[in-house]
């Protein structure tokens, strides 16, 4: 009986393997060669600033919130006849309440600027020399279909899609555009007047919820069907250290003198060397794990902003003392200066905002009981 059971089990496994193999056949060598010899090829590139400015199919570094990142899709035809194709691109827009790319425009330059050699600026309908919600097809503005799409895992994207495009025989077609990196505590371009995406929310991106807060290490722009294969270019989310979001929410802007000063002490003093960068990175990992919801509450309530300004005053004083400590011992060793300044700021802040309040509560409780 046991032998018969083993034979039956073996036959069952073999039949299952056969059925699975039959249902999902492995592509033949001829099929693989045919895929590789597709007469129409697609290359998706973006502009990186780091370590030097250039177009690349890899990751894009050196970008910050409220900047416009150039992209290019090259469609190459190796046939002797014209090929008619369509193109579609997904650009990650929202993930768990954080906003990445909130607009695109018909503007392109292989430099850190866009359009007529100037830095992109938002006008009534144009970015630099290009129009919002359009792309460039062989240097001419083109109006694509624009929709919201949702990827597996729940990431929401802004997708643009073309109609039929003709790629000349033995030639190529260029599609160029720029994407806008969403800025916290600012207008959400996807949901403003004139957007083809219609009525959506929020109209304003909350403080601390812009591109710098994007979950993970990168924000992706990827080709989608009908473009075959996997073509993705990632924008490095490297600006999580760019702002103190609670201070930004308190003062109403990242450009307020107090916020700029705090940021400069952290990045240009403490974070000016490798040891300091490690300390700052560790602090930011901890800080951004809990601060965005608090920053959101403060930015949306004037009364809380006033209270926060009072509460943050000791911190501003601590930062000034921290800068003084760093400056006075930097000549000895920059790394030691960073460690000393960081420890002073950490211990002082913990004492004022945690130790003293807890001690005071314990004293009051002891007197009452």
Describe the overall structure.
With 369 residues, the protein is an alpha+beta fold. Helix content is 37%, strand content 24%. Strands 1, 2, 3, 7, 10, 11 and 15 form a seven-stranded antiparallel β-sheet that branches. The chain is elongated.
Write the layout of secondary structure elements.
Blueprint: H1 2-23, H2 29-36, E1 40-48, E2 54-56, E3 68-77, E4 83-85, E5 88-95, E6 98-99, E7 101-105, E8 126-127, E9 130-131, E10 135-137, E11 140-142, E12 145-150, E13 156-161, E14 165-167, E15 172-181, E16 186-187, E17 204-205, E18 218-223, E19 232-236, H3 245-251, H4 257-269, H5 274-287, H6 291-299, H7 302-329, H8 334-368
Helix pairs in contact: 3-6, 3-7, 4-7, 5-8, 7-8
Key phrases:
alpha+beta; Immunoglobulin-like; 7-stranded antiparallel sheet; 369 residues; 2 domains; 19 strands
Quick overview of this protein structure:
This protein is α+β, with helices and mostly antiparallel strands. Helices cover 37% and strands 24% of the residues. The protein folds into 2 domains: 39-236, Immunoglobulin-like, CATH 2.60.40; 245-368, no CATH class.
